[in-house]
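Usage

Read records sequentially. Each one opens with the input sequence:
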Amino acid sequence: MPLEVDHIFIMTSHGAPAADRLREFGLTEGTPNRHTGQGTACRRFFFHNAMLELLWVEDEAEAGSEAVRRTQLWEHWSEDGASPFGVILRGGQGAPFAAWEYRNAGMPGFAIEVAEGTLPEEPLWFYFASMFPPPVQPREHACGLRDLTGVRIVGSALPEGTVTMSMARAGVIAAGAGETMLELEFDNGSAYEVNFLPDLPLRLRY
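and closes with the structure output:
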């Protein structure tokens, strides 16, 4: 199985009201999730080969605890200038970056590799060392989107040695400098485009 994007999250305000914009566009929302012990919660949209997650801090004490703080989720949610994105990979021959294993007692059976040394200005990077069982969720959408076929992350100009730039060189994602934006391509399409600013730094191409 080649290295590919499993899911992407965008840090949002509490309750992710921007998810309603996605529903209005024609995306079918899956069930929300509360990450017990981690202090975060999310609203989720599932596709045939990936997931988009709108994530926020629900419990500041849990998110700031010693066990969770190393993930940098708190900093990326709370600090101005930090990237609001996170990318979770699967497949390949293992994590394609230096990483440490994150486990949480509140989520039995869950383990994920977290990239070390990422800058605040770049997305957080993760890797599933062993696939976590995918939930049964709706994956059909009125707008017709099915498969994620491209990811482009725009933000602060990053040094070549960062995880993000190494993933861009490997062709896992594309990266650019400019106004913070996550661009997702579906079904190899480029005929149509929808932009969710100012509610969400997200652009869909299909």
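Summary fields computed downstream for this record:
- The helical segments are 19-25, 60-63, 66-69, 73-78, 163-169.
- The first helix runs from residue 19 to 25.
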